[in-house]
Design a protein that fits this description.
Two copies of one chain form a homodimer.
Chain A lengths: L17 H20 L6 H10 L4 E2 H8 L3 H13 L3 E6 L2 E9 L3 H19 L5 H17 L20
Antiparallel strand pairs in A: 1-3, 2-3
The first copy, chain A, binds a DNA duplex through helix 4 and strand 3.
DNA sequence: TATTGTTATACTCTATAACTATA
DNA sequence: TATAGTTATAGAGTATAACAATA
């Protein structure tokens, strides 16, 4: 087997398309969130669940759709939060198959610490951008996120609401 | 343990800061790359290694720094690529502790298929953005990526070059 | 003694299939 | 029969520690 002499790069970009940048920065962001949340006592996977539940109670399926996590995977995730008494699970009287999940009183202090940690990571990631650029980046990312919403473990079209249970 | 009545969201954003958007979209991007690369026969972890090696031969340490992967983890990654005869490892005559890694001739066809797959995923992720917005997003992401370069498993300051071995 | 690459190990995250209970 | 939630299991990714060969 011989080695290739020196293949020229495809175009102008060395190896960094926007998609790969997203994938790479996603890892960096997740890693930093993980490090910052250690003192708070929660892991990255719990972050979106807690923040979404703060908007109001939901069924597990609703939560799974909202945070784009497989319903199977959500079980263990909620078990962690229940073990720490940060959430409450109770049966839905209307349909006893369903569990209604909501945030516990005890979670309030944690959520405050969590907000602080998240804001710090956010700030650390975007130090190089001024406020206008941050806003710009966030707007672009929001649009991309909305456009890729039909992806992931959930295949149902979320025609109703992205953040249910706020009633 | 009682349930919290209805805690109001922190500010205007429901649960989507730029940092969390990055983390979330990173997962989406990685998942899509993974799906698109199945027919090509490589996994997402190999992507950056191959694209970086295309710029020229490197030592394993140089490659590890360039793609921000732990040197330990890089071993198994390169074993995969070597098993498929996509790369060649040989001893550096100047320092026999080092391995020089380069792309094999056989990899050329794969790289072409890979470029196509990457471009398709890229396009699928950014459908909602026009060319100017894509350029804008990429520029912002590049800056953030450069600013967070001192993160990750590598702690050495990359003062020389981000993509070594191009000589 | 320090460095390059390697192996072994474990822990987290994710994906699939099969099960219980309710409808 | 279909749905909500659960369990079990296996795979991929990642991080740490210890080791061999070379400098």
């Amino acid at each position: 087997m011989e080695a290739l002499e020196s293949a020229a790069p495809p175009d102008e970009t060395p190896c960094t398309s926007a998609g790969q940048l997203l994938a790479g920065l996603g890892k960096v962001a997740t890693r930093r969130f993980g490090a910052a949340l250690v003192p708070v006592g929660i892991r990255p996977r719990h972050l979106n669940a807690l923040l979404t539940l703060r908007a109001g109670p939901t069924t597990q399926q609703g939560l799974a759709e909202a945070i784009r996590v497989d319903a199977v995977q959500l079980v263990g995730l909620l078990n962690d939060l229940e073990d720490e008494e940060l959430i409450v699970r109770r049966r839905d009287p209307a349909d006893r198959r369903r569990h209604i999940v909501e945030i516990s009183c005890k979670a309030a202090a944690r959520l405050a610490a969590l907000d602080t940690a998240v804001a710090e990571v956010e700030d650390g990631l975007l130090t190089c951008l001024d406020p206008a650029e941050r806003k710009q980046l966030r707007a672009l990312l929001l649009r991309v996120a909305a456009a890729t919403a039909e992806d992931g473990p959930v295949d149902e079209a979320p025609t109703e609401s992205a953040c249910p249970g706020a009633a």
